[in-house]
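Hi Y.,

Following your request, here is the sequence exactly as I used it, all 538 residues.
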Amino acid sequence: MDPVIIVGAGPVGLALSLGLAVRNVPSVIIDDGTDANAVRFTRTAVLRPDTVAWVRRLGFDTVWDKGASWAGWRFMHGRRHARTLPLSPDRRAAPLHIAQHDLTHGLRNAIAALPPSKDLVHVVTNSRVDALEQDPDGVTAHTRGPVPTTWRGSYLVGCDGARSTVRKLLGVRFPGRTAVERHAVAALRTELPWTGEAVLHRMPPWSKGGEVTARPLLDEAWRLDWLLPPRGDLVTPEALVAQIRETLAGWCDDTPAYELVDTGVYTLHHRLARRWRVDRAFLAGDAAHLLGALGTQGLDEGLRDVENLAWKLAEAWHDGGPAEVLLDSYQAERRTAVASRLRAADQSLPVLRGGGGLRTYLRGGARQHDALLTDGHLGRGPLGAPPAYRHSPLAPLDPEGAVEVGTAAGAPVADVPVTAPDGTTGWLRDRLGRGLLVVLVAPGTGVWDRRHWVTAGVMPRLAETVRTLPLRGELLVTEAYPGAAAHTVLLVRPDGHLAAAFTGVHPPSLHAAAEALRGNAPGQASAEAPEEATAQAH
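Below is the corresponding structure, written out as tokens. Let me know if you'd prefer a different format.
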């Protein structure tokens, strides 16, 4: 079968190629060379813990060493320190702040480390797509560059950014709001009073209102963001340097020595593509959505897009047959999730930036406002929490023996210690990616001799059920899982979302749920989730 064509070689496109490669699906990356070697410390991303875990599974296992995890999140209002929110010292549970060029470089190194004999990822540099053709068997992409070339692929994914050529060639509209927020940004090396803590300072006394954040990077570097009027005067280099000196002096009583590394002014837009799938072509990342106001993280969402898409494309590629429900579920799940994030940001903006909105619903003044901003920056609540695909078309319909646990169906699973039948131990997130996970909650297995529990009780029956599932599966056991009783069985999707939980071993239900994840369940739910109608407003 032909490879998957990926247009765009930023972090989202590179991650997709690696996500396909670990499932033995070849891809061709069309790279126009834009900003290929750009080092910009003002272009950073905050990745949620489960996103970081996925990046590590893709082969960038040193990603923790390339970014900064924060010890706390400090709130300041005017001249007073309001409070500090401590963050987990466990880096597995903490967000990671990383420069985008470091993320890109790490993913490129992971591609270079793939076995050459398999030829799983082929990168074509200095080429631009200028025409697409689709037929029932695949996609043809015409590129221009040093040597104009025609490429044939089984599928094509546009990861080519906000000005996506793929989106335009597909005729997909990209409505939304322009200039939602504007920020002046500086990356600098200096010593601030809050080692390892990120800072949100609202209404600083040296400024006429406004808001400034300071977020640590590696090597005593910081990214500082000043909120600007959405449509205001140009920020000159002299004005930005004055702003830096004024802010540092306000925090440190006097302007400390600093090394200015990078500056920029970024205007944030909110947009959502009307369609994320057109036959065999898909959109992901900034080509599908733009967000970023109130600390929301567009790159993190883009990486979630391709984690969701990679396993579905791989299943369709290997199976070779019709996979309409499975492939349609990408748009139904991810577009609905991003639309919900955009609505939450749009509803919060009037509260936080002045005038009306939800003010009557948010008692508590500044504390509630701080909580809203924290959601976006730290990956919590409506502005930042990982999405739950509650109305997924891949959800099993009323399976026998289903039970509720601490994780809602469709939400990302908790990262708990697990043991495989061969005695291998590790963390649940580290086992994700290649197929389904079937996790038995079995208290005591950590202290029992493996020779006893692996052949005792429900284990033999469950192992046989896993062996015969219609999708590749791996059996694991855990001592405990939030909200789950002993002998609960969890079925986990390749992207780490909970498909279903059962009270004990129910082979027919497990098989039916696995078939549902292939898009083959009888009477399957529509690929358009209920939120989709509301999402069309964007």
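Residues 19 and 499 are 20 Å apart (CA to CA).

Thanks again,
Q.
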